[in-house]
Specification:
five-stranded parallel beta sheet, 5 strands
Length: 148
């Protein structure tokens, strides 16, 4: 499995902890930045990770910022991306099983490193259940082409 990962300055430390955890678990990681606490614009990083998933370069992605919310909003603008902000293990499992999420968003200011790594492990080990949930994913895909 190949995981794309990125953060803005507010999620840099958490990204580094999650990346180390993944590497220690023998999971290949592609780090799209940022590479310091210097202020950056999070949409740029969400775009790069999202595009790498849509292009098939990476299977899944993890984005970190202060709360996970900004990254989630930005990533979900990319057609085909289903990014979920997660702060607990149950939601990590449910978002893969029910929503087939392909990007996990974490917040450094709201989630500790230990819990974040447990969330990542749970998210990565869960699998999409399909069935009635597939109908809902198809409904989301239809919304991606809807314009007001």
């Amino acid at each position: 499995m190949k995981i794309a990962i990125a953060s803005d300055h507010g999620g840099y430390q958490l990204k580094e902890a999650v990346k180390a955890h993944l590497l220690n678990s023998n999971i290949e990681v592609v780090d799209f930045g940022c590479h310091s606490r210097e202020s950056v614009d999070f949409p740029d990083y969400a775009k790069n990770v999202g595009q790498s998933i849509i292009n098939g370069e990476n299977q899944l992605g993890i984005l970190c910022c202060g709360t996970g919310i900004g990254m989630s909003i930005a990533a979900n603008k990319i057609t085909g991306i289903r990014a979920a902000v997660v702060g607990d293990v149950f939601s990590a499992k449910a978002t893969r099983e029910h929503n087939n999420s392909n990007i996990l968003c974490l917040g450094e200011r709201v989630t500790g490193e230990g819990l974040a790594c447990l969330i990542v492990d749970t998210w990565l080990s869960a699998e999409f259940l399909g069935g009635r949930h597939a109908n809902r994913i198809n409904g989301i895909k239809e919304l991606e082409s809807y314009y007001c």
